# Entry
Amino acid sequence: MTERTPGFATLAVHAGAQPDPTTGARVTPIYQTTSFVFNDADHAASLFGLQAFGNIYTRITNPTTAVLEERVAALEGGTAALATASGHAAQLVLFQQLLKPGDEFIAARKLYGGSINQFKHAFQSFGWNVVWADPDDVASFKAAVTPKTKAIFIESIANPSGSVTDIEAIAEVARDAGVPLIVDNTLATPYLIRPIDHGADIVVHSLTKFLGGHGNSLGGIIVDAGTFDWSKDGKYPMLSEPRPEYHGIKIQETFGNFAFAIACRVLGLRDLGPALSPFNAFMILTGIETLPLRMQKHCENAKAIAEFLATHPAVEEVNYAGLPASPYNKFARKYAPKGAGAVFTFSLKGGYQAGVDLVSNLKLFSHLANVGDTRSLVIHPASTTHSQLDDAQKTSAGAAPNVVRLSIGIEDKEDLIADLEQALGG
Amino acid sequence: MNHDSYPDDYIRAILNSVKTIAMVGASPQNVRPSYFAFKYLAERGYDMIPVNPGQLGKALLGKQFVASLAEIGRPIDMVDIFRSSEHVMPLVEQALAVVPLPKVIWMQLGARNDEAAARAEAVGVKVVMNRCPKIEYGRLSSEISWMGVNSRTISSKRGPVPTQGMRLSLNRASVAGGDTLASDRAAKTRNETG
# Structure
């Protein structure tokens, strides 16, 4: 008998979770504890030496968080995952495994404004040097490769512009350069795009957005695809060389195809410390159970609203990859056939002030700096998330002064359209 | 057998049926993967035999090292080879010379020799290559899920509970000075009704 592979919605409910052995509780309990007792001294030594599976301290592993990690790894088709306190923390932890001071990584210019700031300022202070490339021009990634390049970083669906990246083309550049491709899959979620299927070696998420989905809990996660050989050329000593903090263990040799996730946990999270709260893990797990249903509704609503805005006289242009006129429509159809996501931008003929006015006129959309909530959200990036960038950077990041970003929720689309209609003025 | 990927049922059947495992290349150094795997499999109840001619006279977690498979002198169910691919063939030849034949030859993560595998399979010995039995046991039992690893298994059944007949500890800390409140209440109830 061949084994049946469970479908996506089944994994969204079941992966990683089983009834609690002690109590029989069906829902994953919140293990709100800092620490876990050892059976005896030998057991403690085995856990500290990474010889046994088990829990020591919630900064390193936690049973509630572990369910979340396995679930996201299963949904992404990865070998393992590591949850962190936020998406930013996930990026910090993963790059610490890859970069030494003076190293470089290539990142798409069109990124979430927070990532641009993190790479440009915080990472720069560690001597981790970002080199920007244009996600619409694959050759620019190739041209940016140097002997110091250690990774390539892109977003599957870019924030705020909603453009879809040609993941396979950039994966090929990464393969040729012998470096891993890291894909931030926050806006797509594995329901719409599974970057590992297209050549990604590492997937990273802000769980705060569509995965958690209800705007109530911060979280981040790193998924290891298990595809990259970290030991072939000595470029990734955290994974290939004996680790002094574990008496000379070599991480890849010991942990095989989930070595990157383990390195992130035992070298990154253990020593840097941005662990996810078990309570947040529980909230996000509950959110993920309805991910397929929510994403269907998010995408259906987003498409209807993009179509409405495209015909509105006050609107200059709508950047939604789900519209046939979008230059990204071919990538949306290839990579995200179930829908082009629910975050996109549009520009107003009235310029910067029209953007500010629209935001203040809306009654149902919430004006705030988040995306991927059940509620519909709006922001004017030029005056908020991207305000620290100069005008050229704003425009290249898809956040020109007259651009407004929407994150479409799961309300009735007729109500959302009516709100936009009254706010734009008739 | 297709050695690029194994059905879980194949691995599960092997790990459920073998009892005695000879680990060739077992290391006494506690940071080596072979030590990790040896210790874990011993803790899960497998009868482990360390094979390493360089360690004769020494013991690994209480088990005496033997020099070669031929010197074990009792039936072995599985040979777990902790050597790199180029050293595999002579070890498989030795394993196939053992009487009775082992049921399984397992090659560790990173080790693969298709010619050696074909020879073993030709005489009915099951082969697993480029896998770790510790990782596979941990995965199929979902014990490895503690580390956020994708076990690629799901279950709606309650996990293992303390086995029947297992003595439970009575040495918990007592509150309220150790008095037996229940009997006090029983006595009180008796007085009230009597």
Q: What stands out?
A: Residues 305 and 417 of chain A are 6 Å apart (CA to CA). Chain A touches chain B through 52 residues (CB under 8 Å). Residues 291-310 of chain A form the longest helix (20 residues). The first strand of chain A starts at residue 80 and ends at 84.
